[in-house]
Design goal:
about 325 residues; alpha/beta; Rossmann fold; 8-stranded mixed beta sheet
């Protein structure tokens, strides 16, 4: 499948500690290595799931693909065009073709604007559409996400969490985009509401031919929507493959630990087999394979060499692990 969105060697470093207070204290500037040489692609009409622990760089990667965050290096191709360093004026026409659904339905909506104003704003900015024509478009979109015209004049605080996320979905889709980043869109919702929103996203994806990057830390949620999954750890994609390959035949020890930590997929007893410790700080990532301090299979090579991603036996399945590239010794 031809990629609609493709990242190659994408890097994002955030420089910290350059303020006056830091300089007076004689502290050196520090670097957060949020994304380190990521390569991935999303085909037209495809949903790619992106999973990993909180702090691994998933949301930053999603924002990089939309140019909401400026990359440090690497390329981002949208429909064949490299947009990584495209000037704002040239990027603006592409904005309507790529949108985002934010994680927090409470913080992502302006509490001082009505639903009518929130959902209509993209129409005003990109199509110069206002008044009755805009209201008809907004009402039609609300209907598609399961809300009513009577909700147009209400404010975000008058809705439940699930309803607010539907408003966020309506705002993201009002311009009929081609690519949508779903940044943990159900993590703040009750489980029963999660199922409803996931069903809605799947229905809208099929109806509108959307390409989705679905970001989550929950494998069960991702598996419900995505046919292909990428696993991210401390700024790098460590495994990628079809849903069945990732869930039933995980190749990277980190992916295996994620599966062992999800009681709904592997049973509560399996959660005790998850490796100890927490995600290292992106300010000081471990040398070699970043997962080696927590990996039960780590060897000397893991502590000194960053593993490259290698293709595995199953088509489209790859992993960045020395176990599959010459051994860990």
């Amino acid at each position: 499948m031809t990629p609609l969105v493709e990242a190659r060697d994408l890097v994002k470093h955030f420089r910290l500690g350059h303020g006056l207070g830091e300089r007076l204290l004689g502290r050196q500037g520090r670097t957060v290595r949020a994304v380190e040489g990521v390569g991935l692609s999303v085909a037209r009409g495809e949903t790619l799931g992106l999973i990993g622990e909180s702090g691994c760089g998933k949301s930053t990667l999603g924002r990089l693909l939309l140019r909401l965050v400026e990359p440090s290096s690497g390329s981002i191709r949208f429909d064949g065009q490299d947009i990584a360093r495209l000037p704002d004026a040239a990027l603006r026409p592409l904005r309507r073709r790529m949108q985002i659904i934010f994680q927090d339905p409470y913080a992502s909506l302006n509490p001082r604007r009505t639903v009518r104003e929130i959902v209509a704003l993209p129409l005003s900015l990109h199509e110069n559409l206002r008044g009755a024509a805009a209201e008809e478009r907004v009402a039609a979109m609300l209907d598609r996400v399961g809300l009513a015209r009577a909700h147009l004049g209400r404010y975000p605080h008058q809705f439940s969490g699930g309803q607010r996320q539907r408003i966020g979905i309506a705002r993201a889709l009002i311009l009929s985009p081609e690519f949508v980043v779903c940044d943990e869109p159900v993590s703040a919702l009750d489980v029963s509401v999660q199922a409803q929103v996931l069903a809605l996203l799947r229905e809208l994806r099929d109806e509108m031919g959307l390409s989705l990057l679905f970001i989550s830390h929950d494998l069960a949620v991702v598996a419900h929507l995505a046919r292909r999954i990428a696993v991210m750890y401390l700024g790098r994609v460590v495994e990628e493959g079809g849903r069945d390959a990732i869930i039933r035949r995980p190749a990277h020890p980190y992916t295996q630990s994620l599966l062992a930590s999800v009681p709904r997929l592997a049973g509560a007893a399996a959660a005790r087999r998850a490796p100890p410790g927490e995600l290292p700080s992106p300010l000081a990532p471990p040398p070699g394979c970043a997962f080696h301090p927590r990996c039960p299979s780590a060897g000397p090579r893991c502590r000194r060499e960053v593993p490259r991603r290698v293709a595995l036996a199953e088509a489209g399945h790859s992993a960045a692990c020395h176990l599959h590239d010459g051994g860990v010794g």
